[in-house]
C-alpha cells in the first residue's frame, strides 16, 4: 500500500465527497473513483457507504483511516529525522497562524530564519485558532503560532511572549464619568453599561477572554456589532461608533480611523500569552526547534520595544 493511496482515502474521508477530494488532490474524479474501487476490491471490504449524502465511512473505513493517519505520521517523523541526518540542507516546515497575526510576526521572523536556513521551505496555512488547532491534530501543519490557551493534552505549547489587551475607542468617546480616577486611564466597567461594544465573534479567543472579564465583574455589555476580524473591530471603534478590545499586535499593525484612547479595565490589566504549539507525539526536528527559538528571541525583543504597558 503506497503512502499516496493512504492520503487519497484520508482526503475522501475528510471531504466526504470523491469529487471534492479529487479537486483537493489535483486528480480527476474518475481516476480517484477507480483507485478507491480497486483498493476496496483488494481489501475485500467497502471503506465508504455511498448510499448516504454526503458519503460516510463504514466501520472498516473508520479503522482504515485511523491506521492510515498513524502510518503517515510515522512516515512524516521518519522524513524529519532523515533531514536532520543530512545536516538540514533541505526540508519543509508548515506553519499555522491567524492571518492578522501573520501580518505582524512573520515579517519579523522569516527573514532571519531564511538567512540561516536558505534551503528550508516555509509553508503557511491561515485560519482562526480553532481551525489551526484542528490542522495541528490532523497533521496538516507542524507548528501553530497563536494565543493561549489550548486545553488539548495532545498539544505542547511554548510561550513566546505576553501581550496586553486594552479597551480602545475614538479619542474623547469615553469621559471622566467612566474612569475610576480622573487622572488615570482605568475604566470602571460597570459605568459602561450604556456604551456600545464592538466584539469579535464567539469562536475567537479574544472574545473568550473578554467574556471571562465580563463574568468576573458580572457585567453584561451592550453589543452593537460582532466581527470575525479584530482589526475591523479596532477601526470601527476608532471611527467613533463604540468601544472594542484590542491587542498590542493590532495596535502595531492596524491604522486607526482617528486619534484614539486606550484604557485598562479596573485594576486588573487584561493579558494573554502568545505561544507556539506542536503535537506531543510528533518528532520535533532541529529545524523546527530552531524556528521556535528564533520566534522566541525576535518576538520577545519586539514586544519589549513596542509595549504599550
TrEMBL record:
Gene3D superfamilies the UniProt entry points to: 3.40.190.290, Winged helix-like DNA-binding domain superfamily/Winged helix DNA-binding domain (1.10.10.10)
Alphabetical keyword list: DNA-binding, Transcription, Transcription regulation
HTH lysR-type domain boundaries: 1-58
Record-linked Pfam families: HTH_1, LysR_substrate
GO molecular function, a single term: DNA binding
Keyword Nucleotide-binding: no
One Gene Ontology term, aspect cellular component: cytosol
Family: Belongs to the LysR transcriptional regulatory family.
PANTHER family xrefs: HTH-TYPE TRANSCRIPTIONAL REGULATOR YBHD, NITROGEN ASSIMILATION TRANSCRIPTIONAL ACTIVATOR-RELATED
The protein's name in its UniProt record: HTH lysR-type domain-containing protein
Protein species of origin: Terrisporobacter othiniensis
